[in-house]
Amino acid sequence: MTDTPRGNSATRARWQTCIKLARELLLVGPDDKDLKLGYLHTLIDTGRLGPTHHPRKKILVIGAGITGLVAGRLLKDAGHDVTIIEANASRVGGRIKTFRATKHHQPFEDPAQYAEAGAMRLPDFHPLVLALVDKLGLGRRQFYNVDVDPSTGSGPDVPVPPVTYTSFTGQTWTNGDASPDFREPDKRGNSWIRANRVQVRRADYTAGPERINEGFHLTGDEVRAPVVKMVDDALESVRDYYSDVVDGKRVNKPFDEWVEGWARVIRDFDGYSMGGFLRDHAGLSDEAIEAVGTLENMSSRLHLSFFHSFLSRSDINPTVRYWEIPGGSWRLPHALHEGLRDEVRLGHRMIRLEYHDPSRDADPEGTAVGPDGWGVTVQTVAENDPQAPPLRWTADLAVVTIPFSALRFVEIVPSMSYKKRRAIIETHYDSATKVLLEFSHRWWEFTEDDWREELESIAPGLYEYYRLGLEVGAEPARTPTLADADAVLLGAAVKESGVTEEMRQLNSTMPLRGPAVRPATHAFGGGSATDNPNRFLYYPSHPVEGSTGGVVLASYSWSDDAARWDSMRDAERYVYALRNLQALHGRRIEVFFTGRGATKSWARDPYAFGEAAIYTAHQMTSFHLDASRPEGPVHFAGEHTSLKHAWIEGALESAVRAALAVHQAPPVTIPGPDQEEDRS
User: Which of 373, 491, 509, 550 has the smallest count of CB within 10 Å of its CB?
Assistant: First the structure.
């Protein structure tokens, strides 16, 4: 590693912070070991934390999301006395949540249907989560970010390829058997891009972006470049810090230069928002930035840290695959919970955390911790019975995995270090909202012949009714209003429609935007983008066996875009989402709407308090290193303590890190006789 740059003490301290952040980001451990290889060995290869010189400890894990479950399982299997406290009284999993039929609730008309409220795709370059899915026997199949030709590829009977990870040390880790016959289906790009009243298929936009780009008033070279190329070109100068182009491919620089290069990226760009970077560093015009924001789903996050957007695009390999868990992502935390039934306590919300830190002079009066007592005491209230007396839980050490946005409402005694308090108070949590709509038929897969057949089976002449005078590009004046049609067209193809009277009234008062007929989408998986409030939408990658229908993620929005939806009641969300979906696909999709849907606002969730930690400018260098630093016997984990914000992989990395640290840590106190009795 090169010498610390010259300058004043603040400059030198900042550089050391950047070096530490770079090593954390790249998972470079002591002696330049690859921490990821160690985590894979611990979680996947052995499932064991290894030997320790310290005895069995009593450990509290706060939160039964994926982080808490993995940390708890590792610590339990290592022989520790583990209790996992979860505020949610009905489920584990945190922000891994699937809308599905249960004994108490059926969100969709078809009980076989399901859809993701939270995590929905697992990238190929996240080996911990993929290998864990395989280890638990959950199975995986491709999630299609881009729609595909289903007649191509190796098909579902061919095993998926193994999980592989190539370390910066040169070592390759593999989990699973080779599958030489596996082939991905061909990408089509039949889904839509619609902005400024211009609509084209994704493949057509890539081949000729001018029609869409002109709508943003782009000129010169910008009008001829797809926005994804604009962004990648803008980021090339940043990638030059830590990698070189060799034979047309990016290759990391030698180890020391690679780490230092990332440190310089952090030093030079952590103060930028993404919008500021594109404008002030890359030199994009305001119009180009507006196009990038709209079509690359960055508009609502342009004011947030450059690093979040950059890290999500730092792997520029166009062949990256995404995976999903058949039956829903909920199966991952559920499988972990099965081995922790005796350890997980649902319905207990932490309201007070006391801890004994031996590095402090004295413990506050009135606390139940101290050198002769327990290291940690937690007080909880019952989520389903607010009148019940609080419960007290004691332990040698604790692993706090709940979001800092939730921890903000917990009384902590004594106060934690200044930087930790700043991290808890200031870490920015973004909004994310999904609106999902169920349809009785998968109309997004239809050809025009399929449309004719299906509509005529509902009512003779219905196909021509929708087409009558409604050629693509028809003037709005020629488009009938809902008053011209029989109100029963909404959900007409559904035997037992769930369309409520409130939905019909809302639907009848909303103007149609665009013609009643647009070209058949004929897309299998993938998603479309629009500048209407729905913003981004995804079609199911696979049909549900035995079902003719499916659930469309009709609106997936973030930040300010999500906040607009958060102001609406659920019934309003469904109707507005349907109307905006019709603007993209034509009015005729209404006949297949079952009247059922599901919606999730993570900013309004009383346990998550937001979608994920998404830093603003300067926050990473200001306090990220303090986010995961223990406070005496209290350790911290969760995606917010990693630098893979919003990804399960980051949560798993932090879970293994914290479990290893707690496993090796000595108890900070020696409980007296009374406390020893509590161990039973």
Answer: 509
The beta-strand segments (E) located in 163-288 are 163-166, 172-175, 192-195, 198-201, 243-246, 249-252
**406-437: string of b/e by CB count within 10 Å (b at 16+)?**
bbbebebbbebeeebbbbbeebbbbbbbbbbb
| Residue 65 DSSP symbol | B
- E strand spans, 150-219: 163-166, 172-175, 192-195, 198-201
Main-chain phi, psi angles of 656, to 5 degrees: -70, -45
Report pLDDT for 480: 42
100, part of any domain: no
Same domain, 354 and 375: yes
Q: What is the pLDDT of residue 313?
A: 77
Where a domain ends, among 571, 602, 633?
602
Check residue 68 and give its pLDDT: 99
**How far, rounded to the nearest angstrom, does the alpha carbon of residue 600 sit from its chain's CA centroid?**
13
- CB-count exposure of residue 600 (10 Å: 0-12, 13-18, 19+): buried
Find where tokens 């520790």 sit.
80
Q: What per-residue confidence (pLDDT) applies to 670? A: 55
Residues 442 and 583 reside in one and the same domain: yes
Per-residue pLDDT of 519-538, as tens digits, reads: 999 999 999 999 999 999 99
CA distance 658 to 638: 9
pLDDT at residue 567, rounded to an integer: 95
| Spatial CA neighbour of 71 closest among 664, 657, 666, 668 | 657
Angle between helices 619-627 and 255-269 (to 10 degrees): 120
Q: Are residues 441 and 587 in the same domain?
A: yes
Q: Which residue has the tokens 């070592």?
A: 171
Burial string for 653-667 (b: 16+ CB within 10 Å, else e) reads bbbbbbbbbbbebeb
Cα–Cα dist 293/529, whole Å = 11
Altogether, the residues listed in the chain come to a count of 680
Report the half-sphere exposure of 279 (CA within 13 A, side-chain side).
Answer: 13
Whether the model clears a pTM of 0.85, i.e. scores above it, the answer is: yes
Residues spanned by the domain of 296: 192-313
Distance of CA 104 to the CA centre of its chain: 27
Structure token digits, residue 633: 């016997």
Pairing of strands 172-175, 163-166: antiparallel
- Round to whole Å and give the CA distance between 256 and 548: 56
What's the Cα-to-Cα distance from 248 to each of 35, 244, 245, 309, rounded to whole Å? 29, 9, 6, 24
**pLDDT tens sequence across 464-484:** 999 884 544 444 444 444 344
CA dist 83 and 66 (Å) reads 15
Alpha-carbon dihedral 669, 671, 675, 680, rounded to 10 degrees: 100
CB atoms under 10 Å from CB of 292, counted, come to 25
Which of 143, 158, 118 lies closest to 524, judged by CA? 143
Q: What is the CATH number of the domain that holds 375?
A: 3.50.50.60
Residue 452 shares a structural domain with residue 543: yes
Task: Mark the ranges of the chain whose per-residue pLDDT is less than 50.
Answer: 1, 315-318, 469, 471-484, 486, 675-680
**Token code pair at residue 292:** 């990038």
The long-range contacts involving 494-502, CB below 8 angstroms and separated by at least 24 positions, are 494/109, 494/440, 494/592, 494/593, 494/594, 494/595, 496/109, 497/594, 497/595, 498/109, 498/594, 498/595, 498/596, 499/593, 499/594, 499/595, 500/571, 500/595, 502/571
Cis ω on the peptide bond leading into residue 414 (within 30° of 0)?
yes
Residue in the block written with tokens 């009383």: 606
